[in-house]
Design brief:
Blueprint (H helix, E strand, L loop, with lengths): L2 H4 L8 H35 L2 H16 L2 H22 L10 H26 L3 H9 L4 H31 L11 H12 L2 H30 L7
Length: 236
């Protein structure tokens, strides 16, 4: 069978399965990135304006999640969550093993990792805001909530876009690690196809091309977002 037929959408082709796997990769990456954004914002707030206990907890979170291997985080969350759910079900009288949903556990694990990195980006972006803008907001009588909504959030996001683009690319690649818990994304589908057809090179080179296409489109999108966000800002 030729490469075109193998990767096509015919009765013997794997094109549809690879397309579905690509959509799964996009879905789990988006879920993880959005969760990481929420966690990152909360951690950044705790480190900037929280009390001593919040700062210690936030710094511990960022240090731990950035310091241990990403695959280990996925294993701990998936198998630890499955063990906890099984124990609870047994306590309620049920029998057998209860596994955590692969999509949910993978997205949460990658999201937690992404949140640790995004917190540093948000913290640095907040530090890039000109202090004069905040002083001007207070001078014209803006409340803290209003200045946060009109100045802090827009300016922080503006300066954070380049870093967030890098974290998105990281989340996109880390989605391949979720294949270890059974989620059928690009890498998992490529492994299944390679094993079924005994043509590993064809499937793995196709998987690499799909990841490259996704990362290229994403990079272009973040570049456009940065260009729009930085309009009117004088650059050195």
């Amino acid at each position: 069978m030729s490469y075109i037929e193998l990767m096509g959408f015919g009765p013997r082709g794997w094109g549809l399965l690879l397309l579905q796997a690509t959509l799964m990769t996009i879905a789990v990456s988006c879920a993880a990135f959005l969760l990481g954004g929420v966690l990152g914002a909360l951690i950044a707030w705790a480190r900037i304006g929280g009390g001593r206990a919040f700062r210690i907890a936030a710094e511990a979170y960022a240090t731990v999640l950035r310091g241990i291997p990403d695959l280990l985080v996925i294993y701990l969350l998936y198998f630890g969550g499955s063990t906890a759910m099984t124990a609870v079900s047994h306590a309620l009288g049920a029998q057998g093993f209860v596994g955590v949903n692969a999509f949910a556990s993978g997205a949460i694990a990658v999201g937690m990792i992404s949140g640790a990195y995004q917190s540093e980006i948000f913290r640095g972006a907040f530090g890039a805001i000109a202090r004069g803008e905040l002083e001007a907001a207070r001078a014209v009588g803006m409340s803290g909530r209003l200045s946060f909504r009109r100045i802090v959030v827009p300016q922080t996001l503006r300066f954070a876009i380049p870093g967030l683009g890098n974290v998105w690319q990281l989340a996109l690649k880390e989605s391949a690690l979720i294949s270890v818990v059974g989620l059928t994304e690009i890498l998992r589908q490529a492994q299944v196809g390679a094993g079924s057809t005994r043509q590993p090179f064809a499937f793995f080179i196709t998987a690499a091309a799909l990841y490259l296409v996704l990362s290229s489109i994403s990079g272009w999108g973040f570049q456009r977002a940065e260009a729009v966000g930085m309009r009117g800002v004088r650059r050195a």
